[in-house]
Amino acid sequence: MKKQQAVAKMTDVMAKFVSYTGKILPDDVYAKLEELRSKETSELATTIYDTMFENQTLAKKLDRPCCQDTGVLQFWVKCGSKFPLIGEVEALLKEAVIEATVESPLRHNSVETFDEYNTGKNVGKGTPTVFWEIVPDSDTCEIDTYMAGGGCSLPGKAMVLMPGAGYEGVTEFVLEVMTTYGLNACPPLLVGVGVATSVETAALLSKKALFRPLGTHNENANAAKMEQLLEDGINSIGLGPQGMSGNYSVMGVNIENTARHPSTIGVAVNVGCWSHRKGHIIFDKDLNYTITSHKEVEL
Amino acid sequence: MAKKILTTPIKAEDLEDIKIGDIIYLNGHITTCRDVAHRRLIEAGRELPVDLDGGAIFHAGPIVRPIKDQEGKYEMVSVGPTTSMRMEKFEKEFIEETGVKLIVGKGGMGKGTMEGCEKFKALHCVFPAGCAVVAAETVEEIEDQNWMDLGMPETLWTCRVKEFGPLIVSIDTHGGNLFEKNKVIFNEKKEKAYAEIIPHVSFIK
């Protein structure tokens, strides 16, 4: 396959996959929502959940984006240094977004800053966002896709704590976001927490945390314990679906961490709304692909 | 329990028995109306091109598309609520000026809207966000569109709807505000959760 053909093929697959993820929720999110629905008891909470499920059924049947805010597209690319299209990936993802915007259709969500106009194509300077991780000696390319909507991006917050604040301070920081902005970000939320040195390292990890499959835990025992403590704690607040009260609040809490400077604890929170439109696709060097997030997908 | 359905034009007495947390539905007409429309009426003093007396507005910016071979006709593709709080600054006066009886949006609204709803008898309700296809499917027809110079999201799209909902009442005509009430409860529970977590996270020794 010539390079040009290969680029066209990967662009086409990614355009179709992006479009698909705007219509169908990933398997883990859907299953978790069903579980949370079954644990709600009030008429208010169950009625809201029923509407959410009806919406997903209709979106599939009518082939329409399930939420009108199809977000800014973001891609977390874990690319092997020997993947043949490593140099083309970023440009072809942009092209794929333009195609998906017309095909799907996706809402035009790219406003050039300072010049303040909507490009009308859903792409602009630095959008879609591409986060890179290079894997030495590998020839595959793994991509996490995400539709970063306005509602779920708004609660995002990062700061650097003094070590004296400890993990108690991290707890306070996360809980505070839940009852202020989190409430309006369409719960049940997926909460991503990053713990590192500075604002950007923590923030990047908090986004990465949103891609981790639901139900998995941080490999560090203390971090995993904190995930569970925060999940139980936030659930006990009882935000319920849409933040209108219920028995639960979140789909999960995922923490990602790195080592930190001895004088700082960088912490960040990012949330995914109930309509958490993420996808995960893996390409091999011949561009055969496997989609792990949606088992029934046919592109 | 039978579905509580309001039909436009809505009268003040129709709202008397409705309380915060109730779930209602709407038959009749609802017009999308958001930031600039509010600003034009209240700040610029321009007359609204739609009669909203006894009517309903939806804080929403929809995706619509022209219907093929029918000039000036559009269909609703996707419509979901937007954050109502952005309209808080104008809403009390808006209710007084227009006589609107039902405001639908996302999230809570503040003191001005509470006063407006109590004094002039109106409700603020929440339509579940992220359910844009359900909402679009209750629109039988877009009967009229005004102020199209504002662009697709801000145009006043007047829709005929059937059983539009569920609409969760967040502000009633008796001074009740569901979000304000919940906020107090959530904050109490948050403090309790914090106290329960911290003994277990002293990882720095």
UniProtKB/TrEMBL annotation, chain A:
Q: Which Pfam families match?
A: Fumerase (PF05681)
UniProt entry tagged with the keyword Lipid biosynthesis: no
Specify the Fe-S hydro-lyase tartrate dehydratase alpha-type catalytic domain's residue ranges. 12-281
Q: Which InterPro entries match?
A: Class-I_Fumarase/Tartrate_DH, Fe-S_hydro-lyase_TtdA-typ_cat
EC number(s) given by UniProt: 4.2.1.32
Under which main EC class is this enzyme filed?
A: lyase
The record's keywords, sorted A to Z, are: 4Fe-4S, Iron, Iron-sulfur, Lyase, Metal-binding
**Catalytically driven reaction(s):** (2R,3R)-tartrate = oxaloacetate + H2O
Cofactor field:
iron-sulfur cluster
Family per UniProt? Belongs to the class-I fumarase family.
How does this polypeptide assemble, per the annotation?
A: Tetramer of two alpha and two beta subunits.
Q: What protein is this chain from? A: L(+)-tartrate dehydratase subunit alpha
What is the originating organism of this protein? Aequitasia blattaphilus
Automatic annotation (TrEMBL), chain B:
The transmembrane segments are none
Query: Is Membrane set as a keyword in this record?
Result: no
Enzyme Commission code: 4.2.1.32
Boundaries of each Fe-S hydro-lyase tartrate dehydratase beta-type catalytic domain copy? 6-181
SUPFAM superfamilies membership: FumA C-terminal domain-like
Name assigned to this protein: L(+)-tartrate dehydratase subunit beta
Keyword terms, alphabetized: Lyase
Assembly with partners or alone: Heterotetramer of two alpha and two beta subunits.
Protein family: Belongs to the class-I fumarase family.
Q: What's a single GO MF annotation on this record?
A: L(+)-tartrate dehydratase activity
